[in-house]
Fold each of these.
Amino acid sequence: MGLPTRWRGRWRPLRSLAAGSLLVGAIATTTPAAAIQYTADSVTDGVTGGVIGGSAVPGFELYGMGYVQRSDRLYVGFSTHLPIGGYDQSLVGIPVAGGSIAWGDLFLNFSGQSFDQALVAEDLYGIRFDAANDSGVPQLGLYRVTTVQSVTALNSGFDSLNQYITTVVQQGGTPDMGAVPLDGSYFNQTIPMGNAIATGTLLASDVTFIRDFSAHGFAADFGFGANLPATGAFTYGFSVGTEKLPLGEFVAHVFAECINDGLAFRGSLSAVRPPASNPGAAVPEPSTGIALGLVSCLGLRLRRRMD
Ligand SMILES: [Ca+2]
Ligand SMILES: [Ca+2]
């Protein structure tokens, strides 16, 4: 897999997606629908004021995410207590940027390296899917990321990932980031978390926010009810075209703007079909990659993650 041994045990196999995608290339007229891959999150690592866990609705407890590639689009869903539009500042009690604490941007890392290494190499992709957030890029879209910024200080968030972890543990919760460890090997956990794109190159603007998955051919709950141990009050997500993304394995992650919860999941993108001029061509093999996710909220700190 090309990944550090310590991460392997937590990454789920991608059998259904890989098998379905390869069949697309071989038998184009009988393509089976790929299965949604789910990643559950701790249900006691969302911090909403003094509450840890799911008793605060709305709140920041994230229950899990799912993703699937269908044809040339990637669908990502959330099961969460964080409503569309974010956690309103009237509930926070102090002003926050944009009037709410929303989602940060989602990052995709195909490099096989840590988030920080991928940033240094400028080998990182980002998706702004939440129109209510405080991203540094002006429109929804897929970006090749140049720099990231922390929006935690502007959104009543934690100063660092370690501060978030300490708070969760002290209150009896279990911090978890899904596909990546919280041991400093993937994120720098001692500095403000870069949870939003600061600058980047727009690759595609076809990011579609999904409020109702049933309108896109999925179960209304995106299958969360049957595939997660527990589910949040809200289900929504987005889709994006895969044409501008690399093929192969990735690690994706997203944090709330305050990093009061977040999640990383492992995935893979496959070629939809062989080139028309060469229908017998083999589908490219997935390459090695990594990705993940997390977030918090307070102050805009634009910086390059060179440290
Ligand atoms: Ca959670
Ligand atoms: Ca905000």
Amino acid sequence: MKIIMLGAPGAGKGTHAGKISEKYGIPHISTGDIFRENIKNGTELGKKAKGYMDAGELVPDELTCDLVVDRIHQDDAKNGYVLDGFPRTIPQAEALTKALAAAGEKVDYAIEINLDDQVIIDRMSGRRVCSCGATYHIVNIPPKKEGICDKCGKELVIRKDDEPETVKKRLEVYHKQTAPLIDYYKNEGILRVIDGTTGLEQGFQDICAILDQK
Ligand SMILES: [Zn+2]
């Protein structure tokens, strides 16, 4: 069961990937974790990646792909894996397809969590956080008193990442760089789309229905 998660930032890819990992006993693999792990362990690939990061440059697609392929060939991924945040661009997807084909492998499913931009903007702009670490949402998890943390009484703030302008910029990058992957995997015949508006529980049931077909 080799799975790629697709969808806009804020659509819930990471959450669903975590739940898939737990239910099906396959690792949830994110590029952020792979980078951290390799740099911490001082691997050859990690050293190369760190060189780019220290210079403030983007890690090239091929190196990122090498790191991912190295990770998915570790023992715990023998029965499959769920990739979250990779591939992010068409060249990365092509590099992954090629590297897997060289090992006689291929991805089984690319699952897209489909959600309108406006829904994402509304969801994210409703988030509020407290410096104590508590998180809220003005509609879904409101504090007892508006704008005030239930736990410590401090004033709640909007994170920079959740500000509508920031969210819109991230969505623009997504539509330009990552959304073309939806067509790419459609052409490969492995795209499955779930409706992101139905909520986390229903969304996960829809994913399980897809994965349990085999
Ligand atoms: Zn607080």
